[in-house]
Amino acid sequence: MSEGFLFFQDGKQIDTLEGANPSSLANKIAKVAGSDSPGISAAPASLGMAAGPMVLETVREFVKENSSHAENQSQSGVTDPLEKQLHQLLNSHPVMLFMKGSPEEPQCGFSQKVVSILNEEGVKFGSFDILKDNKVREGLKKFSNWPTFPQLYFKGELLGGCDIVIAMQESGELKEALVDHDDLLTTSSNEAKVSEAGKGVISESTGLSETLTFRLGRLINSSLVMLFMKGKSDEPKCGFSRKVVDILHQEKVGFESFDILEDDEVRQGLKVYSNWSSYPQLYLKGELIGGSDIVLEMQKSGELKKALTEKGIIPTETTLEDRLKNLISSSSTMLFMKGTPDAPRCGFSSKVVNALREEGVGFGSFDILSDEEVRQGLKTLSNWPTFPQLYYKGELMGGCDIVLEMHSNGELKSTLSE
């Protein structure tokens, strides 16, 4: 019988893991730690460490004790020649980043973020563009048992993806991991070097003046959602800028924009500042998300809405069940009908409206023809397949026949007055 782990929550076994692959273990622990409610899955570790630095430390200890199993697990499903190539790539540099694009021209916001963090920490690193070799791209997913990119490795060991690298930087673990490896740090890692040249102080890391750097930072942070584009939001001058504007409108997100065609200093400076060579560029709370293709991809996958919610830019979306319960309780007597009380769209709805008015009962109403999601959802919630539906104090009274029967025998008014 192979060694592995059992995961328990509230005294019940909820998951298992054979072996001790680091990414799988991190994923499992983050899943358990990230959800207190049965049936609600936490974000996988590759999309954010729900349990924070403690999970990283726990995983690290487990992996040390079970390194042989981790190695066997990670190699499953990878052919020998490809495995050899992956080993060579992993060990080609002490700090190795598998990313989309290159450090000079990242092709996704997550890759760009990890590059920025490594540059901020003054870390020397190698990189491999997985967009140029699909065999390596797919093989590394199986080898590391980690489904997304970027992937950052230190001395051949997987550290994780973008969110884990962010968490490690914020907790100081990234710097701590490299503190005894001076050969991996640039000479400017501890103190930014500046030199006098031309217009004031110039940063050696970017070549931008302090004045321009300050201005760019202020522009980026001038709005929670900031779009640097060609043209204005109501008059885009390129299709890519127009697409991002349309997406933000579709997501009902308020944003500010800056026309880079009107200021070449900002246009050229921001390319260097963000390490992103094209426009448009979208920023959320000062953090670069990416260009048109990335924003479109994030919208399709739901990651854009998730990012907007996590950063507090848009409110947390309520579930359909919560919305239905809020509608039902919006009035003590609530009628879900076809049409409105003044303009019913079916005879059954009209009869219920007349019965309530004859009894002198005040009531709220909702036109289920105006919202198909509510219409279908309410059928399931109430286990009642037809409309109208009458509710009193959150409880279903019934449909047309029941309401008319209660009206005729005198029970309707007394029931709705309790």
From TrEMBL:
<comment type="similarity">
    <text>Belongs to the glutaredoxin family. CGFS subfamily.</text>
</comment>
<protein>
    <recommendedName>
        <fullName>Glutaredoxin domain-containing protein</fullName>
    </recommendedName>
</protein>
<dbReference type="GO" id="GO:0005829">
    <property type="term" value="C:cytosol"/>
</dbReference>
<dbReference type="GO" id="GO:0051536">
    <property type="term" value="F:iron-sulfur cluster binding"/>
</dbReference>
<dbReference type="InterPro" id="IPR033658">
    <property type="entry name" value="GRX_PICOT-like"/>
</dbReference>
<dbReference type="GO" id="GO:0046872">
    <property type="term" value="F:metal ion binding"/>
</dbReference>
<dbReference type="Pfam" id="PF00462">
    <property type="entry name" value="Glutaredoxin"/>
</dbReference>
<dbReference type="InterPro" id="IPR002109">
    <property type="entry name" value="Glutaredoxin"/>
</dbReference>
<dbReference type="InterPro" id="IPR004480">
    <property type="entry name" value="Monothiol_GRX-rel"/>
</dbReference>
<dbReference type="InterPro" id="IPR036249">
    <property type="entry name" value="Thioredoxin-like_sf"/>
</dbReference>
<dbReference type="GO" id="GO:0005634">
    <property type="term" value="C:nucleus"/>
</dbReference>
<feature type="domain" description="Glutaredoxin">
    <location>
        <begin position="334"/>
        <end position="396"/>
    </location>
</feature>
<keyword id="KW-0411">Iron-sulfur</keyword>
<keyword id="KW-0408">Iron</keyword>
<dbReference type="GO" id="GO:0006879">
    <property type="term" value="P:intracellular iron ion homeostasis"/>
</dbReference>
<keyword id="KW-0479">Metal-binding</keyword>
<feature type="domain" description="Glutaredoxin">
    <location>
        <begin position="95"/>
        <end position="158"/>
    </location>
</feature>
<feature type="domain" description="Glutaredoxin">
    <location>
        <begin position="225"/>
        <end position="289"/>
    </location>
</feature>
